Amino acid sequence: ILSYLLTVFLVNIVYTQQSIGTLKQLEDCVNRPNYQSEGCPDLEYLTYVKDVDNRLDKFVGIWKGTYNGKIYTFKFNKRIKYGSGKGLYRDLLIGRMQVQDSNGKVTYSTLSERNDDKIYFHGDNFQRNIYMMNLIINTECNDSGVVFMEVYSK
């Protein structure tokens, strides 16, 4: 019975250990020429993708701009070890957004939503210095897209 308990204990240790990768490793994997056919077999056991170089920090904050007469406000927060409790956790950005018409009337807003799980504006991965985020405005209509973000320095 002692050997059985020891085996169970050791197996439990193996399964509870984290395998941590970085955002850079994930980015490099996705940019491999054979990624579409082979995926990332060397990263398949990762349990946590960590922002060890603080690459996400430059996007955190409130950003405002205008486009086609509309005023856009974006708020990005960094989440550490974000996940559903099953499988892979990752450091990522969660975005919130507000759109106002030319008269200042709010036509869309998630700025006041406190629950991250109700926000469908989550970070995905880097491609060089560009951070990609998935955005879903209306889940019933499949009104969605990919947002590409880059901060230019002077």
From TrEMBL:
It comes from the Bacteria. Pfam families: DUF6705. Residues 5-143 form the DUF6705 domain. InterPro entries: DUF6705. This is DUF6705 domain-containing protein. The lineage of its organism: Bacteria, Pseudomonadati, Bacteroidota, Flavobacteriia, Flavobacteriales.
